[in-house]
Amino acid sequence: MGDITIFGIPVALGTMLYQAFIFTVLFWLLHKLCFKKIVDALENRKKHIENQLTVTEQYKEEAKQKLEEQTKLLEETRREVLEMRKKCKEETEQLLKNARDEAYQIRAKAVEEQKKRLNQGA
Fold it and tell me: Is the dihedral of CA 78, 83, 88, 93 positive or negative?
């Protein structure tokens, strides 16, 4: 085979065809032996990452639901505490009123008894 010149550079046509054949054989061997394993490894990694993203989304959704539940529970507890404080305040005021009324009645009764004693003694 003869040499050819491309852009002023001599190229051996036989060597070029031989290198193209060797490259094709090497590429075919790599494709059969390595590329499938590499592609499979990349696919497995892709599936693993997608699975992890799915699991992460599930955990995120669960955390969001639990946060909402806790927020509702906290609000309900606050409402109950406010109701209890209001009820306790009302009961305390009623007890104080009853105690004042009873003290007033006892005092009035004592004054009345004292007046009777003074009237009986006079």
Answer: positive
Residues 55-96: tens digit of each pLDDT: 999 999 999 999 999 999 999 999 999 999 999 999 999 999
What's this model's pTM, rounded to 2 decimal places? Answer: 0.49
pLDDT one-digit tens code per residue, 10-41? 878 888 889 999 999 999 998 888 888 888 99
DSSP 7: T
- Beta carbons of 4 and 13 less than 8 angstroms apart: yes
Domain boundaries, the chain: 3-121
Q: What's the length of the chain?
A: 122
The rounded distance, in Å, linking the Cα atoms of 49 and 60 is 16
Supply angle C-alpha 75, 81, 82, rounded to 5: 90
